[in-house]
Amino acid sequence: MTRAYALGQALVHTGHDAEIIGIKLTKGPIYPVPPKNINVTEVSGFCMVHRIWKLLSRLNGDIIYAIKPRPSSYGVALLKRFITGCPVVLDIDDWEQGLTDSQYKGRASSPSPKNRILGKVRSLRACLRGHLNYRRWMNPADKRYIRWMEQTITRADAITVNTRFLHQRYGGFYIPHCKDIGKYDPDKYDPKESRMRYGLADYIVLMFPGTARAHKGLEDVLVAIESLQNPNVRLVLVGGRSSNDPYVAELIERWGRWIVRLPAFSTETMPEVIAGAHVVVIPQRDTSVACAQFPMKLTDAMAMAKPILTTTVGDIPEILGGTGFLVKPSCPEELAEMLAQTLANLQSAGNRAVKARERFIKHFSLGVVGTRLSAVIEALP
User: What pLDDT does 110 receive?
Assistant: First the structure.
């Protein structure tokens, strides 16, 4: 949804009408909270087939912009084009095949001949269970659907991507993440007041705004914080899809004394929250999934002129262009050293952060990205 919001706002900024409509797959409110200037409609139904049918009937735009190559978005868009002939643009902001394959990896082994036979029998039974499993067939993120969608990507009238990794794999037009420089304006907020409002006044705030995942390297930064033994430093986790995230629970169980967790906020409130950070940390690990991503947190921090401590993974060095603090991935020792230097020289770090905002305005503002996206839209048949 974060990517959909960014693209929708860029289109609205350049004079287009944009509506976000999709199937709701989870209970509870939409995460993240939608921006006020975009109409967001969720489609529900008693089963996935019913929801897809309802979504198909609601797609009445002149152009359909499918977010992610999944059957519940891109698959429905292709079906609508078959019926009406309307153009379809596909946006790819993750390597979906890599994400799904990482969830189904097994362990390598060298079994005996007897165990090989038993293993084949078990595999056959598991395969049959999988094909007969109703829930898997009703899950649009199932690996079978992702593989099928991967084979149809070239059928889109245009493709947009947000990293070099994805561009090399799928081609298309490079459309990076973007933010509204009017809302994300550090001059509108007082960092001390923000920290007071959100209960962070007593801390040196290292902020991670977004969904916590293993490939995002939060363990590395927590090990670095623990090695510093500064009682005032806290890693502040902002948002997340669920308040009961088991991964976050594991982090808190091990490093709870160093963690503060804040809930999800609307896009209108996030600039004020980020204003309270002393440093924004984005310690991505060097995995294929991470290399395919453009962390949205980068544009949040750049727009708000916050010092950024991150790793040399994927497009991150190119995005920052020398305006952040970079260390090797999966290296808590380097993180701790750079963190200590940054906190000891926050004024100097702030000067670099101002340059990050200047770079953001030049490359990642709504106007710049909206102009690129409008060129893609206007070139459609």
Answer: 39
